[in-house]
Structure formats: C-alpha cells, structure tokens
Amino acid sequence: MGVSGTLDYISDLMRSSHKHKKRKQFQTVNLKVRMDCDGCELKVKKTLSSLSGVKSVEINRKQQKVTVTGYVEASKVLKKAKSTGKKAEIWPYVPYNLVAQPYAPQAYDKKAPPGFVRKVDNPPNNAAVAKYEDPYIAMFSDDNPNACSIM
User: Fold this and answer.
1) What is the mean pLDDT of the chain?
2) Helix boundaries (H) for the chain
3) Do the bridges between strand 88-90 and strand 116-118 make them parallel or antiparallel, or are there none, so unpaired?
4) Distance (Å, rounded) from C-alpha 126 to C-alpha 105?
5) CA neighbours within 13 Å on the CB side: how many for 34?
6) Whole-number pLDDT of residue 139
7) Cα dihedral 144/147/150/151 (nearest 10)
C-alpha cells in the first residue's frame, strides 16, 4: 500500500463520515389514542400520515388502536399524535396468553380490548413460598425466650 493507497483510504474515510446518515429502521408503532367519532379518526389519520417516513396508518376505533408503519421513531409518532389534542400513549396491552398471570391486579385491566391484558414488565411475586416451620422445634428452641426450660 503506497502513498496513493493511503490517500485513497483517508479520503474514503473523510467522505463516508459526511455523507452517511443513520437511517431509521422500518418498524410498526402501535398507539392507544382516544377517539370518539369519525372526525377524530380522520384528524388523527391525517396528522400521522403527514409525518415523513410513514408508509401506512391503520385505525381501529373500537379498540382505540392506531398502527403506524414506516421509517419512523416511536417517540416522534407519539408526540405527533398528542399534538392533535387527543389522549395518546404507546399501546400498553399484550395478548393475555403471553402473560404468566393475566388476572393479577397489575395486569388485568377492565378497559383492555377482549383477549388483551396490560403489559407488566416484572410481575410481582405475591405467591411467595411459605416456609414450613415445625412448631415443636420453635417450642424447644434456645432462641425462644418463652421456650420450655426442661431441656
């Protein structure tokens, strides 16, 4: 590798650092947006379709679910949905068969669509294993001040 090879290598490095931009990945973003009528639905659809990189916007008003697919970031889609004046959040539900305890108080949600429960990251361990302790051992224990003094 001579001088010209080194110069080509350095010029390629310099050129690549300026031209290449990090491209967003194609993804699907699910949102829960409160919509009551056709006007609300149309407003949300029109606003989200105006984002750059959006390929499609699907709305299910019965479930209050909006699905946006394209080269977008979830935070920007959420921000744009909130700009319509509607209450919006990232879709908080998962199918109930993916949750270990779907009827736990943190996971069960009356407002969830049929077949879905709220997404719980760390399910609480309420069912702690109770340690069986023999009452006779505690009765004759040296640690118990009220123990039998016969021994």
Assistant:
1) 79
2) 3-19, 38-49, 74-82, 135-139
3) unpaired
4) 11
5) 7
6) 66
7) -30
Helix (H, G, I), strand (E, B) or coil at 141: coil
How many other C-beta atoms can be found within 10 angstroms of the C-beta atom of residue 91?
A: 17
For the record, the structure tokens of 21 come out as 């931009």
Please say if the pLDDT value at position 65 is more than 90: yes
For residues 32 and 1, give the distance between their C-alpha atoms in angstroms, rounded to a whole number: 58
The pair of structure tokens assigned to 81 is: 């949905």
Residues 141 and 148 sit within 8 Å (Cβ to Cβ): no
Q: How many CB atoms lie within 10 A of CB 118?
A: 17
Given a cut of 80, whether residue 63 has pLDDT beyond it is yes
Q: For 112-123, write each residue's pLDDT tens digit.
A: 888 888 877 765
Q: Which tops the pLDDT comparison, 115 or 70? A: 70
In the chain, how many H helices and how many E strands?
A: 4, 6
Residue 71, token pair as written in the block: 């080269």
DSSP character for 109?
Answer: -
Among 78-82, 107-111, 146-150, whose mean pLDDT is lowest? 146-150
